[in-house]
Design a protein that fits this description.
By secondary structure, the protein is an alpha+beta fold. It has two domains: about 120 residues, Ribosomal Protein S5, domain 2 (2-Layer Sandwich); about 70 residues, Alpha-Beta Plaits (2-Layer Sandwich). Helix content is about 35%, strand content about 35%. The protein has five helices and eleven strands, in the order βββαββαβαββαββαβ. The strands form three sheets. The chain has a five-stranded antiparallel sheet with strand order 2-3-6-4-5, with helices on both faces. Strand 2 and strand 3 form a beta hairpin. It is rod-shaped. It starts with a strand and ends with a strand.
């Protein structure tokens, strides 16, 4: 799965109506609500949107006929295999009725064009874990963890016998990280994963 690297906008005129799409990366439902509150235009006729974050999604037609705005925007998100993103398509009515099919094409097309214009990044599922290590193992363990691709040392807490490291790493590298910790410390330390 992919997400947008940064916010992106796209605007087009369809039969005198102005459509402005804004795609924004999000991390949660709260981010989606904040984005909607921040970027909805009060002077517009409609602020339709869709967002997806994992298995959770929402969409709204905001007064347009049912199924003509929010759902096509969500289909644009899903059609480009995007996640953790909200797309808000704002419409200023230009005086010409578009009909059901025209609205679906206008909202879905504007959202899709907006998302195509954005730069994407791959979403890598990560895990967090803790490692308790003796002072004698700490330096070499930290060096090997830092050199391991995708591992980030988030926190280091010292205690009487050594330290506790909190790390983040790609989910699919769990077995490799566990093996690295065990091999580096000759089995004296293990990785405890936070679920």
């Amino acid at each position: 799965m992919y997400s947008l690297e940064r916010p992106v906008a796209f605007e087009q005129i369809v039969k005198k109506s102005r459509f402005l799409a804004l795609g924004i990366p999000i991390a949660s439902e709260a981010d989606a609500k904040d984005a909607l509150a921040t970027y909805a235009h009060a002077d517009a006729n409609h602020n339709c949107f869709a967002w997806r974050s994992g298995q959770t999604y929402r969409f709204s037609d905001d007064g347009e006929p049912g199924g003509t705005a929010g759902k096509p925007i969500l289909q644009a998100i899903d059609g480009q295999s995007l996640d953790r993103v909200i797309v808000i398509v704002t419409r200023w009515f230009g005086g010409v009725l578009l009909g059901t099919g025209g609205l679906i094409r206008a909202y879905g097309g504007t959202a899709a064009a907006c998302l195509r214009a954005g730069e994407t990044i791959e979403i890598v599922p990560t895990l967090e874990g803790n490692i308790r290590a003796a002072y004698s193992d700490l330096a070499i363990l930290k060096a090997r963890l830092a050199a391991f691709p995708g591992v980030i040392i988030l926190k280091e807490t010292f205690h009487g016998g050594g330290a506790e490291l909190t790390i983040s790493f790609p989910e699919w590298k769990l077995d490799d990280v566990e093996r690295l910790v065990a091999d580096t410390t000759s089995g004296r330390s293990t990785l405890f994963v936070k679920l």
